[in-house]
Design a protein that fits this description.
Produces ATP from ADP in the presence of a proton gradient across the membrane. The V-type beta chain is a regulatory subunit. The chain has about 475 residues and is α/β, with parallel strands linked by helices. The protein is built from 13 helices and 18 strands. It is elongated, with a radius of gyration of 26 Å.
Length: about 475
């Protein structure tokens, strides 16, 4: 890392984690002050923290101090390093944990001599992207069957505080078929950080996982670095090594709140609900890193976005919805089949997956919807038909077999279970499905009866 011999000591102000320093020769070549580059903050002749240049204004430079400004005096000195923020990139980073400044925090060997790559680069040339056509298997039936995740897709998990979205994200990281999983946590409480770390270790997937973690007690400015560090690493694994990379981020609302906090400290004019006017472009800049590269690998992004007050019109989920290709709604401990949507699922359903996938998906959701309507009629004391009772039975089985977050099975097993669930509740002609598919996949009556008897026996033994 290059370092200028020049030190600038005229600190004009310290507001939050941002300092302003006077640089008289800002237009000269010797200043080495460029937007986005790093600087070293020194106090009492000793290194204090790295900082990033975020604004140049005549003879003033504004910097975000990574370690925060608590204890920093106006007698500190600033030295510009002449290069932007970089992330360590080598095979040695697999299984490692980094903070928002790109430094290892797991107690493992130092990586100072490993190659570095610049973060926050431009999105890939659209001419180098190929049309999404491959499925990312997660072994979560509510995703694989009903809202299939596709390579190069960018999709959020909309949730509210208190829902087990971090546990759900960890399950996807463990179960998903990906060569490399890059996890980025922003504003995590220690319990969540420890949970992710322990879950990856116990599941034996640490060797393919890279963690970038910013805890709630860490400096806010480091929170803004997490997506860029994670995505820069993922991009290089995909392009240079042809890897199928899955990027998991939590929580993008925490990231946006950090942007708002920094913007207020810089006296920017806020827009909707205090967020800065460039919220959309800042989110889009990160999400657009998702791509399937021609002749190389792919980057797929799955990011948690919490909705304060369960308000989908909140600026963060609202802007996210215009950028991404669908969403998963998580509430009441389940993935809601009605609010969730994958706009790219048609690219793989029936092409890379089994021929009955499309029919099963549509039929199951149709019957579940009718079952929920029948339950509303039942709650209002309306008379129910035999068909209504069938749909209610189906809705209960659907929720038990597919919607619970702890359910894990392959796509093929989920499709087979879908046929079995239909056969327990309906006659083949009631499903209105293609006859050729019914003849090929409809379970034999004796098989259905045997499975029902086994389930009944299990229930009775449990009650006993």
């Amino acid at each position: 890392m290059s370092q200028s011999l020049l030190r600038y000591t005229n600190i004009l102000s310290i507001v939050g984690d941002i300092i302003r320093v006077e640089v008289p020769n800002l237009d000269g070549a010797q200043s080495q002050a460029r937007n986005g580059d790093l600087a070293l903050i020194e106090q009492d002749g000793q290194p204090y923290s790295l900082a990033q240049i975020i604004k140049l204004n005549r003879h003033e430079v504004s910097l975000q101090v990574f370690a925060g400004t608590k204890g920093l005096s106006t007698e500190a000195a600033v030295c510009f390093l002449g290069e932007p923020m970089q992330a360590t990139y080598s095979p040695n980073i697999l299984g490692r944990i980094f903070n928002g400044a790109g430094e290892t925090i797991d107690g493992g060997p130092a990586l100072d001599q490993d190659p570095k790559v610049v973060i926050d680069g431009p999105s890939v040339n659209p001419a180098q992207r190929v049309l999404a056509s491959r499925m990312v298997r997660t072994n979560v039936p509510m995703i694989d069957v009903f809202n299939t995740l596709v390579e190069s897709q960018k999709i959020p998990i909309f949730s509210v505080s208190g829902e087990p979205y971090n546990q759900f994200l960890a399950r996807i990281a463990i179960q998903a078929e990906a060569d490399v999983v890059v996890f980025g946590g922003m504003g995590l409480i220690f319990d969540d950080y420890h949970f992710f770390k322990t879950a990856f270790e116990e599941a034996g997937v640490s060797s393919r996982t890279i963690m970038y973690s910013n805890q709630a007690s860490d400096p806010t400015v480091e929170r803004l670095m997490i997506p860029d560090l994670a995505l820069a690493t993922a991009e290089h694994f995909a392009v240079e090594e042809g890897k199928k990379v899955l990027v998991l981020l939590t929580d993008m609302t925490s990231y946006a709140d950090a942007m708002k906090e920094i913007g207020v400290a810089m006296d920017k004019i806020p827009a909707n609900r205090g967020y800065m006017g460039d919220l959309y472009s800042q989110l889009a800049k990160r999400y657009e890193k998702a791509a399937d590269y021609k002749g190389a690998g792919s980057v797929t992004i799955l990011a948690v976005t919490t909705m304060p007050g369960n308000d989908v019109t909140h600026p963060v989920p609202d802007n996210t919805g215009y950028i991404t290709e669908g969403q998963f709604y998580l509430h009441d401990g389940v993935i809601d089949p009605f609010g969730s949507l994958s706009r790219l699922k048609q690219m793989v359903i029936g092409k890379e997956t089994r021929e009955d996938h499309s029919q099963i998906m549509n039929t199951m959701i149709r019957f579940y919807s009718e079952g929920m309507n029948a339950k509303q009629k039942q709650a209002m004391a309306f008379e129910l038909s035999d068909y209504d009772l069938k749909t209610i039975q189906f809705a209960d089985l659907f929720r038990e077999h597919f919607m619970k977050l702890d359910v894990a099975m392959s796509l093929e097993d989920a499709l087979d279970l879908s046929w079995e669930t239909l056969a327990k509740c309906f006659n083949p002609e009631e499903t209105l499905m293609k006859q050729s598919l019914v003849e090929k996949y409809w379970p034999h009556k004796a098989q259905v009866n045997a499975e029902a008897a086994t389930a009944q026996s299990a229930r009775e033994s449990t009650e006993a």
